[in-house]
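Worked example 2:
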Amino acid sequence: MADASEYIPVGKISGVFGVKGWVKVFSFTEPRENILEYKPLYVLRHGDWLPIDVNGGQLQGKAVVMSLENVTDREQAMALIGSELAIKRSQLVETEDDEFYWADLIGLSVVNTEDQLLGQVDHLLETGANDVLVVDAIEPDTQYLIPFVLEKTVLDVDLENKQIRVDWQTDYL
């Protein structure tokens, strides 16, 4: 079995489309239809990531619909509902020094300018103006919503040491 950290989730099969085995996919990519560009995709089945080729697809409302190799009827498509789709980390395009994939930020420790550990990045939100780090705080039932604005609130992202330094105080909720 391959290392789970090798795979980056890019979507989830959310339904069927038509009678010829097409599936509806909720895509995590931006823009949504970029999920169609990855060859191959990997589908999580019974704890294993299996490669699957996309034969075709398109944007359909807020979802993406796609035809998957060897999925030729509605019954086969229905069996895939709820399955996660991923790509291998090696399929990602190299980023610039000040660019980061969300998947690389999740789980990093967040410390402020006073070296106080605020918590860990749980996920990110897209707000339109800027992305927001959702940090699960050390204190129970507390989260920090920290704007991901480089050189203002986010002072440093150190992927090697798994840490983000922020200009943020513990009383900013």
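The first strand starts at residue 7 and ends at 17. The chain has a mean pLDDT of 90.
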